[in-house]
Design a protein that fits this description.
With 442 residues, this protein is an alpha/beta fold. It has three domains: 6-65, Nucleic acid-binding proteins (OB fold (Dihydrolipoamide Acetyltransferase, E2P)), CATH 2.40.50.140; 91-123 and 257-435, 3-Layer(aba) Sandwich (Rossmann fold), CATH 3.40.50; 129-251, OB fold (Dihydrolipoamide Acetyltransferase, E2P) (Beta Barrel). The protein is built from eleven helices and 23 strands. Helix 2 packs parallel to helix 10 and helix 3 (164-179) runs antiparallel to helix 4 (210-222). The active site is at residue 386. S-adenosyl-L-methionine binds at residues 266, 296, 316, 360. This is Ribosomal large subunit 23S rRNA methyltransferase.
């Protein structure tokens, strides 16, 4: 390896001014030659001294002039644990930044006449979903989150994000994992805090022994965990129930669902309510014959509130979730179908007849389904987004198809991360013409 000259070494240390935050929450410094350097844990307006690390990335070694928005991180694991990237930023400023991200995504999609956004932020210690990594290290077991940009695991001993009910169970869970014969080296634990209690899905790299199942049953009974399911790494089948002490249930807008293990729910109870209300507020005026088509319905987070307002046709691609939704739909104005919308989208002709289409697509966006959407041009559409980049892509297609933006609600339900949730209402321009007596082209 060629030795560094003094000039080369000096070029690896420099003082820069951070001008903005990038999409992942890292500070960005734009140099005189146009080059952009991304520096974790810095904020706009700060002057920082940075140094190139052995991996070739840049890290701040000293904050020369701090931002007034800089604050003391509430977690002692911040900077090591990869779960949070923005605890050094004031929460009010963080909400403004996330709101600006959503509005910038919509502007990039082509919308210039933007409504005033509503913005909300959840409280600390409220996240009810956890996806944790497990690794055996000699006689010990690490249970926590990966460090940023690596496969190393930080043992999660404290967390200002997760609900106390999840944190309280980790010591006993860690102790049980330590004794499992089916955990050779690594695995995962996915936890949902439901109305009935903790619902745990354990994934291991080896098969469970009879003794393992007894230990999991003991954990379930002694710590009031209604259900623990298990799956082997790489297995494409459905998880099996390893231990269950009572029914697993969750209430959505008055309807009780028995969800499958690992089912998707919004990150916090508060954000679930905020998203539901934002969707209901964005609904157009519907008559008795109108049908709301809901896409990517999951276990019914939006389905049941919508069914209180109108008849709903809900589509969900994951069979266990669709079954849970269908089983809970009795006595409501809700029809449920299991359908993989990425392979078999709802066609334009059917979408055109809907009083409103509501969709909460996965992180990558609606993809093939969006093509049918812009051909069908339903007069009203409500899009729930967890990814500004996907929102830009899908909203750009809506803009090109003649939609206007009617409402924006931003919910910061992923505290101290760069992730953000948004609920956007759209109406097709033909709906304006129909109200003035012209023909409805949708």
């Amino acid at each position: 390896m060629t030795a560094h000259t003094p000039e080369q070494h000096a070029s690896d240390i420099r003082d820069v001014t951070i001008t903005y935050l990038g999409a992942q929450g890292d500070g960005a410094a734009v140099l005189a030659d146009g080059q952009t350097l991304h520096v974790p844990y810095t904020l706009p307006g700060e002057q920082v001294r940075i140094e190139r690390t052995a991996s070739g990335k840049w890290a701040a070694t000293e904050i020369l002039v701090p931002s007034p928005e800089r604050t003391e991180p509430p977690c002692p694991l911040f900077g090591e644990c990869g779960g949070c990237t923005l605890q050094h930023m004031d929460r009010a400023a963080l909400l403004v930044w996330k709101t600006d991200r959503v509005m910038a995504a919509l502007k990039k999609a082509g919308f210039s006449d933007l409504p005033e956004p509503k913005a909300f932020q959840v409280q600390q210690h409220s996240r009810r979903r956890a996806d944790l990594a497990v690794r055996r290290e000699g006689k010990e077991v690490l249970l926590g989150l990966h460090t940023r940009g690596s496969t190393d695991i930080i043992d999660l001993t404290t967390c200002p994000v997760l609900h106390p009910a999840i944190m309280d169970c980790l010591p006993a869970l860690r102790q049980t994992l330590r004794s499992l014969e089916g955990l050779y080296r690594a695995g995962d634990v996915r936890i949902n805090l439901l109305e009935s209690g903790l619902d745990i899905l354990l994934v291991t790299d080896g098969p469970l022994s009879t003794v393992d199942r007894t230990r999991l049953a003991t954990l379930s009974a002694e710590h009031g965990i209604p259900r623990i399911c298990w799956q082997r790494q790489g297995d494409q089948g459905l998880p099996e129930t390893a231990a269950q002490t009572r029914p697993v249930q969750h209430t959505l807008a008055g309807s009780t669902v028995s969800p499958p293990t690992g089912a998707f729910f919004q990150a916090t109870a508060e954000s679930e309510t905020l998203i539901q209300q934002a969707v209901l507020d964005a609904l157009p005026k519907l008559n008795k014959r109108d049908v709301v088509i809901e896409l990517y319905a999951g276990c019914g987070t939006l389905s049941f509130p919508l069914a209180r307002r109108a008849r709903v046709q809900a589509y969900e691609g994951y069979p266990p979730a669709a079954t849970a939704l269908k089983n809970a739909a009795g006595g409501t104005r809700l029809e449920v179908a299991c359908r993989d919308l990425n392979r078999q989208p709802i066609m334009a002709k059917e979408l055109a007849q809907a009083g409103c289409v509501v969709l909460d697509p996965p992180h990558a966006g609606a993809k093939l389904q969006m093509k049918q959407m812009i051909m069908g041009k339903p007069r009203s559409l409500i899009y729930v987004s967890c990814n500004p980049a996907a929102l830009t892509n899908d909203a750009a297609a809506l803009h090109a198809a003649g939609y206007r933006l009617t409402s924006v609600t931003v919910i910061d339900q992923f505290l101290w991360s760069a992730e953000v949730e948004a609920v956007c209402g759209f109406k097709h321009e033909s709906s304006r013409r129909s109200r003035t007596g012209l023909s409805h082209s949708g």
